[in-house]
Input
Amino acid sequence: MKAIRFCEYGSPDVLKFEDVEKPVPNDDQVLIKVRAASLNFIDPGVMRGPWPLRLMSGLRKPEKTGLGNDVAGQIEAVGKNVTLFKAGDEVFGVARPSLAEYVCARERALVIKPANVTFEQAGSVAWAGFTALQGLRKGNILPGQKVLINGATGGVGTFAVQIAKSFGTEVTAVCSTGKVDLVRSIGADHVIDYTKEDFTKGDQRYDVIFDNVGNHSFSDRRRVLTPNGTCVLAGIGGAGLH
Output
């Protein structure tokens, strides 16, 4: 089968379109014929190989040469312990490396693709969408709350705005001037342009802050939380809950 691989660290020039062996699922996996896959912010980092990351991925050269985590496709075969899916099912979720004609995945990392969603749409959901949903749930999001999304126009941020709205909350999105119309178009009730205003210095208090950037101190974020409010940090800016 064909797959995109990188056998050394560097720019996108190190990527190669190669013939590789078709994977075989183990007893707890399914084999997916890939119809769509997407990249996330982590993939260029893995490819370029900054030194801290090399401690996990290989010091001199990458130990795992594939890229991509998000996938959508059709199941071609299932392991003997798989109970949730059968051959022919259309699914999406997380599988690595997804930049290939076929990839194996654990059944718990997949869900059935809705019929009204294209493979291309489904293939861009998993990593960013699941991160946004998990973060908002960690923040104990409830209908009627005031929610602020800092970093609202990246992959995770755009999902977070829409998911927060689906919970019935009042959403404030923080972004740059050029992205104001974008966040309004996906449902933000209020928009703060961070080039003109610092949300931590305003009078509004929030029940949940979902922060994808981490560019403010703990005390600054706490100042704009309600007494029982929660701040969730995600991504490069930090990870955690306070």
